[in-house]
UniProtKB/TrEMBL annotation:
<dbReference type="GO" id="GO:0004113">
    <property type="term" value="F:2',3'-cyclic-nucleotide 3'-phosphodiesterase activity"/>
</dbReference>
<dbReference type="InterPro" id="IPR014051">
    <property type="entry name" value="Phosphoesterase_HXTX"/>
</dbReference>
<keyword id="KW-0378">Hydrolase</keyword>
<feature type="domain" description="Phosphoesterase HXTX">
    <location>
        <begin position="99"/>
        <end position="180"/>
    </location>
</feature>
<feature type="short sequence motif" description="HXTX 2">
    <location>
        <begin position="131"/>
        <end position="134"/>
    </location>
</feature>
<dbReference type="GO" id="GO:0008664">
    <property type="term" value="F:RNA 2',3'-cyclic 3'-phosphodiesterase activity"/>
</dbReference>
<dbReference type="Pfam" id="PF02834">
    <property type="entry name" value="LigT_PEase"/>
</dbReference>
<dbReference type="InterPro" id="IPR004175">
    <property type="entry name" value="RNA_CPDase"/>
</dbReference>
<comment type="function">
    <text>Hydrolyzes RNA 2',3'-cyclic phosphodiester to an RNA 2'-phosphomonoester.</text>
</comment>
<comment type="similarity">
    <text>Belongs to the 2H phosphoesterase superfamily. ThpR family.</text>
</comment>
<dbReference type="GO" id="GO:0016874">
    <property type="term" value="F:ligase activity"/>
</dbReference>
<feature type="active site" description="Proton donor">
    <location>
        <position position="43"/>
    </location>
</feature>
<dbReference type="InterPro" id="IPR009097">
    <property type="entry name" value="Cyclic_Pdiesterase"/>
</dbReference>
<feature type="active site" description="Proton acceptor">
    <location>
        <position position="131"/>
    </location>
</feature>
<feature type="short sequence motif" description="HXTX 1">
    <location>
        <begin position="43"/>
        <end position="46"/>
    </location>
</feature>
<feature type="domain" description="Phosphoesterase HXTX">
    <location>
        <begin position="14"/>
        <end position="94"/>
    </location>
</feature>
<keyword id="KW-0436">Ligase</keyword>
Length: 194
């Protein structure tokens, strides 16, 4: 029985990728031991499913299509920089999602319900915060160096992107890091909310 590491997300487009990469380059001068997300892997995660039985992937993609059909396309804006667990003790550095957070939250809630029903997802303890992961911080020294930089980046503007689909990805580890492959695309075809 083969299992595939799977997650559901939305693309962020070339403009946001470019802004995020420029920001990463600036921050890399301050902190040298950060594992930066490569431009081609940048996305906003909706749900991380983990290892999914390959026989269930079709059902996952079908459920994602059904959820996406209820939400209209929307504009996503990335701005400001933050960190998990806290900006004072950063382990994961991210760009904030300002416009588009509500539709992402709705998609997350609806997808979570569907995936729990399929039995290929466990509810996460922490709530959902839409974000664009920029990098993972490996050492306390880098965390300390970046903690002083984060407040200076609150006004950072990452750009906008028109989100028109939800994507199901698989993630495979390579020696250079994860490689993401699209397993399915689900267009957002819902009626605009008045």
């Amino acid at each position: 029985m083969k299992r595939t590491r799977t997650f559901i997300g939305v693309d962020v487009g070339a403009a946001i990728r470019g802004s995020a990469t420029a920001l990463q380059r600036e921050l890399a001068k301050i902190a040298t031991g950060v594992k930066w997300v490569t431009p081609e892997n940048m996305h906003v995660t909706l749900l991380f499913l983990g290892e999914v039985d390959d026989r269930e992937l079709h059902a996952v993609c079908k459920a994602v299509k059904a959820v996406a059909a209820s939400e209209p396309p929307f504009s996503l804006r990335v701005s400001g920089v933050g960190a998990f667990p806290t900006p004072r003790r950063p382990k994961v550095l991210w760009g904030g999602v300002t416009d588009g957070a509500e539709p992402l939250q709705r998609l997350y809630t609806d997808l979570e319900e569907e995936m729990l029903e399929l039995g290929c997802y466990r509810t996460e303890e922490r709530g959902y915060t839409p974000h664009l992961t920029l990098g993972r911080i490996n050492s306390p020294e880098d965390g300390f160096a970046l903690a002083t930089e984060i407040p200076k980046r609150m006004a950072w503007q990452g750009g906008r992107f028109a989100v028109e689909e939800v994507v199901v990805y698989c993630s495979e580890m390579d020696r250079d890091g994860p490689v993401y492959t699209v397993l399915g695309r689900a267009p957002l075809t819902g009626k605009a909310r008045s």
